Amino acid sequence: MPDNRVRVRFAPSPTGRLHIGGARTAIYNWAFARAMGGDFILRIEDTDPERSTQENVDVIINAMKWMGLSWDEGPEVGGEAGPYFQMQRMDTYARALETLRERGAAYPCFCTKEQLDEKRAHAEMQEGGYAGYDRTCRNIPTADAQARIDAGEPHVWRLRVPDDHGPVEFDDAVYGHMSFPIDVMDDMILVRSDGSPTYNFAVVCDDANMGITHVIRGDDHLSNTPRQILIYEALGFDVPTFAHLSMILGPDKKKLSKRHGATSVEEYRDRGYLPDAIVNFLALLGWSLDGETTIIDRETLCGHFSLDRITKKDAIFDETKLDWMNGVYIRELSAERWVELSRPWLTETVALGRSVATGANVVPTPNPSDPNAPQPEPVQIREAVREAAEAYVAEHAEALEQLFPLVAERLQRLSETPQKLAFLFWGPNVSLDEKSVRKVLTKDGARADEALRACRDVLADTSRAWEAISLEAACRALAEPLDMKLKNLLQPLRVAVCGNMVSPPLFESIELIERDDVLARIDATLEAVFKA
């Protein structure tokens, strides 16, 4: 590896899903590596045997792939600095400990947990409080310590912090110059009594052995940095450049958590967000291109990302902005790509529509004059209907591309597709929205039934082409002879055909529905609402 080549890593613990905060860290490392022509390494820190699972490893890897954050070394890729799982690197930690022992930089500590807890409790009652391990075992003669080890006495290994060491100082790429007094650095544990390395020891060994030049991570690790620097120095390794990232907060200015809604990459994927939008949005939570540009594609991000434009200010996760940004990216899709990305939601769209079309679970129109009337049950999709819908989407992908123009300007998330397009698959049946019935069809003086009958006559004329332009022109021409505002004329038709007063373009939608089905929906609406 060239001495001047940038090498960064993202090192998640497989103890759960990939959190949005971790995803941002991954994006920053990936973008920095690409901007600098360096290497981006994925390393799995799986030293927590109780919580680290293969399932979680798969979830993290799949989330990284979904976001398009390809790594140069790591799981499924390999590399000269592997292996890339900490549990497979135990020999490297053992060798590092042996080096420290030979240099007198590490010593065994035989204090039991009970002894340490008692000392801590006593120290906390004294003026000044607890100041860390009191170095009880630091000066045990080497021969005596070895005899106790040979006798099988449980022990840990601690770092011997030099007595003459001054403050631990470093220049953080985000926070600037940092200085930590040495007297707050106690002789930390490097290796536990069961032989497993502590986090600080393992991460230093891994980063040094993998040639990591820049450590970009959350600022919750800022307090670990001086301890890790002491380990770097004891092992004789070069200290990398550190860049600590501020926290991501919810709208209430508190740490982003489940109470704010979704927090994992997987959840946002399943809610219909696009990977490009997620990468763009997270990149701007703490970094900016020029302080003004909001939509930043991957090429621009990877061409201009730099550590000096990362801010120390905590970032606020604004889901409203994310929705807007996701809508921008949806509009930039081709119809073919939209169908490809929307397959699960298009399946839901067809399934919901067919559940109404078959007459099963049709939502009846409640009596708008009786607010106490029982509310209809939501449509339940039978498994057979869902399976048939999945097959339909797979076989009719090209035809489904016609739906994209109807919703391209209206979608903020792909998951909104079913509620906006299911009506296209209702066949002759209709599922009327109660609010729309009340505000459009039964409103005093609306003359909605008159408007519906007039529009029905136009749509029933088979001599007219079943095309949006001609159908719309003919229906619009009814306004003047009926002495009716255009809104009052066409809104009832929208509700009767689409079930809702808020829907995609009306006549473009009508063109995609069979003529007989449109007429049947109008008839059903007249019967249900006006008893005509």
How would you summarize what this structure contains?
The protein has 532 residues and is mainly alpha-helical. The protein contains 24 helices and eleven strands. It has four domains: 7-86 and 248-330, HUPs (Rossmann fold); 89-245, Rossmann fold, CATH 3.40.50.620; 333-419, no CATH class; 427-532, Arc Repressor Mutant, subunit A.
What would your notes on this structure say?
- The protein is mainly alpha-helical and 532 residues long.
- The chain folds into four domains: 163 residues, 3-Layer(aba) Sandwich (Rossmann fold), CATH 3.40.50; 157 residues, Rossmann fold (3-Layer(aba) Sandwich); 87 residues, no CATH class; 106 residues, Orthogonal Bundle (Arc Repressor Mutant, subunit A), CATH 1.10.10.350.
- The chain contains 24 helices and eleven strands.
- Helix 7 links the parallel strand 8 and strand 9.
- Helix 13 packs across helix 14.
- About 2% of the residues have low confidence.
Q: How many discrete structural domains?
A: 4
Biggest β-sheet strands, sense, barrel: 3 strands, antiparallel
Tell me the distance between the termini. 82 Å
Helical fraction: 40-55%
Uncertain stretches of 5 or more adjacent residues = 360-371
Task: Draw up the topology in text.
Blueprint: E1 7-10, H1 20-36, E2 39-42, H2 54-67, H3 90-102, E3 106-109, H4 113-124, H5 142-150, E4 156-159, E5 168-172, E6 176-180, E7 189-191, H6 199-209, E8 214-218, H7 225-235, E9 241-245, E10 248-249, H8 265-270, H9 275-283, H10 298-304, E11 315-316, H11 319-331, H12 335-341, H13 343-357, H14 383-395, H15 397-400, H16 404-407, H17 417-421, H18 434-441, H19 448-460, H20 468-476, H21 479-482, H22 486-498, H23 506-511, H24 515-530
Parallel strand pairs: 1-2, 8-9, 10-11
Antiparallel strand pairs: 3-4, 4-7, 5-6
Helix pairs in contact: 1-10, 6-7, 9-11, 13-14, 18-22, 19-22, 19-24
